[in-house]
Design a protein that fits this description.
720 residues, alpha+beta, 4-stranded mixed sheet, globular
């Protein structure tokens, strides 16, 4: 049964119940969650949880319960429906709905009398969120948070929506509770159809047939996707814009391998416009979650760890190709933001910073003209010109979001000021405004330490280290890895999320895949075999726990309420299946593990058609397609100076190339019988053929060229 069939079923289902549509429109009023310290009139079962989001709702008059078999059993025994509300602690509209509805006694009394109500933190339970978001998208064509569902005691949804006003929510509650009391069997029939539709979505990847991997299919996929590129402002031609770093990383590799200047220009355009827009925090560093407009001007003011982690990788790789100093500054400032605002004292990194402060979205980041003048004094006029502070750019409350449409070089030239002088002024302005902003109340931080997201940060820091040779980045990556080993990977047992006193046991494919990738990345730059051992152990565990008969991997472990899921698409974070395949591919080349290599190729062949038709959603797979369709190179450095030579090679943009080293004799296949105590040799190989060993980076690069590698020409070709 195809997706169109699911939509027909769910539209019939909606027509039968005549339910209210959820509202995704803009609302003018920003409200806070109302969660304060002190004595509380109400306390529910969430008080025993450790998730910041669940604790925010622990004193609602709604009798919230955490997700559990017992909660569904209670609903079954009472003969009532379940309200499932999914969100996260830094979600603006989650706060709004809490204050309008979940703190309201009238609404709470209705929910308590007619439903069993369950709260879920989507960051703790991405599996649950994935199931019900899929159902919401089948019904409504879009998803989002808060995600509010009404479901049967067996977990099947009968209503799904996002934000609702108090009156809308009351009507929904009344309509469905009344209907369930009158026609429970009829509702169960429609719920079964929708549940089957959701299950079919997650079974579909396992039913796909393998396709030949070819350059033609990759080029077709990029060509189709390019029709939706916004060539003026970067990103895709949409009203709201997400950066999607995995796509940009893949496009850089494609541009180099295919010598496609249009693709490379698109990536650079996107990074340039993002760095100028309000989606970047020009004062404190770091990137916000997404832009609410096509010009990247006004962001949704959440800062997520996964966005900033991946941006370190994109910017580091892009810098190797164009040596844009702005990218280096963005990395430095983002690193400062992460270490100063997102890091806990033990070394783990928090999941997110809230969009709201004291109930108002973005108020921590915006500026009035009076505030700017008081801080900048005589420099205000020049500052205002650069950051577009004028009557036509007012956002809300007579305030402004800082953004620019010119580079420093362009602005300096157009305003008759030297670039060095303006850069000094800009630095002083930012420091002065940063100090002024520190006096404001800060947004709250979600202090969960999520394994997969921290692993993404390790990767980003390693990429920054490879590019800039700054030991701070590598040292921080090591600290995060050690933190995860001590807290999230105790005694060989991995968990998805950690907080002090947490007893969460859930873990998902993304945690194994991303942490294994991070371990491989650390191994590549440190040559420390212990990291490789951890990676192999994690991959081995994932093979045992999540492998399906299709050759792909399940995202989760199933139970009575949650089905098995196979997910292959990228979202704001890469596909866990794609990252697993990337890990198998790399380890396969390093250790000449043909089983891993075959698995990686088989997995990739299953998504060829998806990439050709919907490349936008398969960027991480695109990297693997490039690995298989274009020549793949292995550079093995063996000897006492291996680490130094590997570090030198890290400064080059080497697409489709594995660079590894060993300072001692090793039985790992790429190093076996290649160690010489008297010298360090570099072996350049492609397709099981190796050149004679050389002793310098320059010679190794020359051998890459002699193999026919064209990527190095990109630096000269595209930087002009």
């Amino acid at each position: 049964m195809k997706m169109r069939s699911y939509l027909i079923i769910t539209l019939l289902f909606i027509g039968f119940l005549n339910s209210c549509k959820e509202s995704n429109k803009e609302h003018s009023q920003d409200l806070s969650s109302g969660h304060e310290n002190g004595n509380y009139e109400f306390t529910n079962e969430l008080i025993h949880e450790t998730s910041p989001y669940l604790l925010q709702h622990a004193h609602n008059p709604v009798n919230w319960k955490p997700w559990s078999q017992e909660a569904f059993k209670e609903a079954e025994n009472k003969g009532v429906l379940v309200v499932l509300s999914v969100g996260y602690s830094t979600c603006h509209w989650c706060h709004v709905m809490e204050e309008e509805s979940f703190e309201d006694l009238e609404v709470a009394n209705l929910m308590n009398a007619k439903f069993v109500s369950i709260k879920v933190d989507r960051e703790e339970r991405p599996d649950l969120d994935m199931v019900y978001q899929t159902a919401l998208q089948l019904v409504n064509g879009t998803g989002g948070w808060p995600m509010n569902a009404i479901i049967l005691p067996d977990g099947s949804p009968i209503y799904l929506g996002t934000y609702s006003t108090k009156e809308e929510w009351k009507n929904i509650l009344t309509k469905f509770s009344t209907e369930y009391e009158a026609n429970p069997e009829k509702m169960k029939e429609y719920a079964t159809m929708l549940a089957n539709g959701v299950q079919e979505v997650y079974e579909q990847p396992a039913k796909q047939l393998a396709n030949e991997i070819s350059k033609t299919k990759i080029i077709n996929g990029i060509s189709t996707w390019s029709n939706s590129w916004d060539r003026e402002w970067g990103g895709n031609t949409e009203q709201q814009k997400f950066i999607i770093p995995a796509n940009l990383i893949m496009l850089l590799e494609y541009a180099v391998l295919e010598q496609d200047k249009n693709a490379q220009d698109f990536v650079f355009k996107t990074l340039d416009k993002v760095s100028q827009g309000g989606i970047y925090d020009h004062i404190g560093g770091g990137f916000f979650r997404y832009s609410t407009d096509p010009k990247w001007k006004v962001p949704h003011f959440e800062k997520m760890l996964y966005d900033n982690a991946q941006m370190l990788s994109v910017l580091s790789n892009a810098y190797k190709l164009n040596a844009n100093n702005t990218y280096e500054s963005l990395i430095e400032d983002t690193f400062h933001f992460l270490t100063s605002e997102m890091k806990n004292p033990e070394g783990g990194y928090f999941s997110a910073m809230d969009a709201d402060t004291n109930g108002e979205e973005g108020i921590y980041y915006i500026w009035s003209i009076e505030e700017l003048k008081s801080v900048l004094n005589t420099d205000y006029e020049l500052f205002a010109k650069f950051f577009n502070i004028n009557d036509g750019e007012v956002w809300e409350h007579s305030s402004f979001v800082l953004y620019t449409t010119e580079s420093i070089a362009e602005f300096s030239k157009n305003n008759s000021i030297s670039q060095s002088e303006f850069s000094i002024k800009l630095k002083k302005w930012k420091e002065a405004l940063y100090d002024a902003r520190q006096l404001r109340d800060k947004p709250s931080t979600d202090y969960k330490i999520i394994t997969s997201w921290n692993a993404l940060l390790i990767d980003g820091l390693v990429d920054a280290y490879k590019t800039f040779k700054d030991a701070r980045y590598l040292n921080e990556a090591k600290l995060i890895f050690n933190y995860l080993k001590d807290h999230n990977y105790k005694n060989g047992e991995l968990v998805h999320s950690y907080t002090a006193n947490s007893d969460q046991k859930e873990v998902f494919l993304e945690d194994y895949a991303f942490l294994a990738k991070a371990a491989i990345s650390l191994y590549e730059v440190t040559l420390n075999i212990d990291y490789l051992k951890v990676a192999n152990k994690l991959i081995g565990s994932a093979l045992i726990t999540y492998k399906s008969k299709s050759g792909l991997f399940y995202y989760n472990l199933p139970n009575d309420l949650v089905p098995r899921m196979i997910n292959t698409t990228d979202g704001v974070i890469p596909s866990a299946n794609a990252i697993m395949a990337q890990n198998l591919f790399k380890i396969g080349h390093l250790e000449y593990n043909t089983s891993y290599l075959n698995d990686a190729k088989s997995m990739t062949s299953l998504v060829v058609e998806d990439f050709e038709n919907y490349a936008l959603n398969y960027g991480s797979w695109g990297t693997l397609l490039l690995n298989h369709a274009y020549p793949y190179y292995e550079i093995a450095v063996v000897g006492e100076q291996a680490k130094n030579l590997v570090q030198d090679l890290g400064g080059f943009y080497l697409a489709n190339t594995l660079v590894v080293g060993s300072e001692r004799s090793s039985d790992i296949s790429l190093f076996k019988d290649r160690y010489d105590a008297d010298d360090t040799f570099v072996y350049v190989c492609q397709n099981n053929t190796c050149k004679l060993p050389v002793t310098s980076t320059i010679e190794a690069i020359g051998q890459m060229k002699s193999f026919g590698y064209q990527g190095l020409e990109t630096i000269q070709k595209f930087s002009k």
